[in-house]
């Protein structure tokens, strides 16, 4: 059985493939495929403008990243419309994390608020905690953040969950399910299939 680091590296590669796949010639070959998304670099500054303090620096295949290359949100229409990753992250958070961290990342008596914890937490640090877990041995009650390194329902959606929580942490979106979202990118669906296999 591969160690967690190998699995993580594998998933991370699958994530990176998202952009590469759509750009490849195969994506354009089938006339039945949905029309291609705008190519990388074709987004104007206006397309990248987001509500909230963090502004995306780049858009590739429906995924927005900041100046450091970390995943970030694209929120428009006064917090009502979100990018696909934020929407997906909301759904994945709600099935895998909500039981301990509470609705909308607000925290519970058992686990800390992720709205607070995400402030200033970069993607690499976040991914490390999710895949490896975390244990507070000093707490009077033993607090355990489980390791999700072997759980594809979490690992295949790591950027999504980070993006959603970042939007919550930045105050770019409020509580509850986002009202509207950008379409699911074709490249996302491909990478998702590959990762979940
Ligand atoms: C079984 C309960 C449980 C589940 C499920 C759970 N967590 Fe946690 N999580 C915790 C606890 C408890 C801590 C605090 C651990 C500590 O203090 O060392 C924690 C800590 C964290 C931290 C670090 C916070 C900080 O301040 O450093 C992050 C980030 C996090 N969780 C994200 C997630 C995400 C994302 C999910 C869903 C994929 C998730 N957790 C699912 C219990 C859980």
UniProtKB/TrEMBL annotation:
Residues 27-73 are annotated as: Disordered. It comes from the Bacteria. SUPFAM superfamilies: Cytochrome c. Residues 84-169 form the Cytochrome c domain. Residues 1-28 form the signal peptide. Pfam families: Cytochrome_CBB3. One of its GO terms (molecular function) is metal ion binding. Keywords: Heme, Iron, Metal-binding, Signal. This is C-type cytochrome, methanol metabolism-related. It comes from Methylobacterium pseudosasicola. The lineage of its organism: Bacteria, Pseudomonadati, Pseudomonadota, Alphaproteobacteria, Hyphomicrobiales.
